[in-house]
Write a structure and sequence with these properties.
Elements lengths: L2 H13 L11 H11 L4 H14 L3 H5 L3 H8 L6 H16 L8 H4 L7 H12 L8 H11 L9 H11 L5 H14 L18 H4 L17 E11 L2 E6 L10 E2 L2 E3 L6 H13 L2 E14 L4 E13 L9 E6 L10 H4 L24
Parallel strand pairs: 1-6
Antiparallel strand pairs: 1-2, 1-4, 2-3, 2-7, 5-6
Helix pairs in contact: 1-11, 2-3, 2-8, 8-11, 9-10, 9-11
Length: 365
């Protein structure tokens, strides 16, 4: 075994972080944990992982569930394509592999949502395949070990070569987990704990006292910002919600119909237009109930919501997958994006257009 691997595994044996999935032998549970951990902190994942397994203890239970059920349980974890793809992959496992997560890498990589990282993680941890994981933490660690003079995305070949040379052939899954823990707890982005690092003697950046300049920064793209308007459409004691199309950002989640404000358009006019385009009904726009701001990974939004009175038209799924009239207290039964959740406290408890007074502050001529 390479000395780098020996030193890393010796440290990990003493200092491995405790996680609900650590030491797990069930491939389904290992796979689930790796999907949830993608671009998500361990502490955030813990409660979701435990709640998920209580409701969906097997691959088959996920496969036969309704999409709304799995999305509701995933609500708040973000990156919802992971959830939709995981369910589709579980359905593949039931259909093509008799409900058993396949052990061959060739079969694993055919499953929906399994890319190179997840393939390596599940393959090594669940089945002992000698294949190295490469995630953000590991890129940072190896960039420092090698004193890589280019950003990690441009030095993947060097990183892969180093990992393939040093991975433990006997304990590949443990090696990968150890390297992830090292990046998460010792070789952190700022102020790394080099003096207690188990692989410091293998690290060129530590040797040359240049740890602070590695990894070389990736080129940052400017994040666009969008102005959004949505309509909270009332009819009697119910409000109208629409379900986003499965493909695309936040696919399968429910929301208040709305969209981007066009150039020269008021936010109120946008709300009316978007409701018409999305679900085919005409509304009378009332007053704004407030604005919220939200940051996504690659862009940010400011969203303003308006109470709207249903006027005419039969709702249709035009620019959405489905629609429903629901009572306000039923809103917790549906999976909504975090941005919509920020609007919930601002919603009127009853239909403001049934109060019968044009002087009502929520009524706008």
């Amino acid at each position: 075994m390479p000395q780098f691997s020996k030193d890393l595994l010796s440290w990990f044996k003493k200092y491995a972080r405790e996680m609900p999935w650590r030491g797990e032998k069930n491939p389904y549970k290992i796979w689930l944990s790796e999907i949830m951990l993608q671009q998500t902190q361990v502490d955030t994942v813990r409660p979701y992982y435990e709640r998920w397994l209580k409701k969906f203890p097997t691959v088959a239970s996920v496969a036969r569930a309704k999409e709304d059920e799995v999305l509701k349980l995933w609500e708040g974890l973000g990156y919802y394509a992971r959830c939709r793809n995981f369910q589709k992959a579980c359905q593949q496992v039931v259909k093509d592999f008799n409900g058993k997560v396949p052990s061959r890498l060739e079969d694993l990589k055919t499953l929906k949502g399994i890319g190179p990282y997840t393939l390596a993680a599940v393959g090594s941890i669940a089945f002992g395949h000698v294949v190295a994981c490469i995630d953000g933490n590991i890129k940072r660690v190896i960039a420092r070990v090698l004193a890589l003079d280019v950003p990690p995305s441009q030095g993947l070949l060097q990183i892969e070569t180093f990992l393939n040379k040093n991975i433990s052939k006997k304990y590949p899954g443990t090696f990968n987990e150890a390297l992830m823990d090292l990046g998460a707890t010792i070789c952190v982005p700022k102020n790394p704990k080099c003096l207690i690092c188990p692989v410091q003697k293998h690290c060129k950046a530590f040797e040359t006292k240049t740890v602070d300049v590695y990894p070389k920064p990736e080129k940052k793209l400017e994040r666009p910002h969008y102005q959004i308007a949505v309509g909270v459409v009332w009819k009697g004691n119910k409000i109208l919600v629409s379900k986003r199309k499965s493909k695309g950002l936040l696919g399968g989640l429910w929301e208040f119909p709305g969209g981007k404000i066009q150039k020269g358009e008021t936010s109120a006019a946008c709300a009316a237009r978007e409701v018409k385009e999305e679900v085919g009904v005409d509304v009378e726009v009332g007053s704004s109930i407030g604005k919220i701001k939200h940051q996504f990974t690659h862009f940010s939004i400011e969203m303003e919501a308006f109470v709207c009175k249903y006027m005419k038209g039969r709702p249709r799924a035009i620019e959405c997958e489905a629609w429903k009239w629901i009572q306000l207290q039923e809103i917790s039964n549906f999976a909504f994006p975090k941005a919509n959740h920020k609007l919930f406290p601002k919603l009127p408890k009853t239909n403001p257009f049934l109060r019968g007074r044009k002087s009502d502050p929520l009524f706008k001529m």
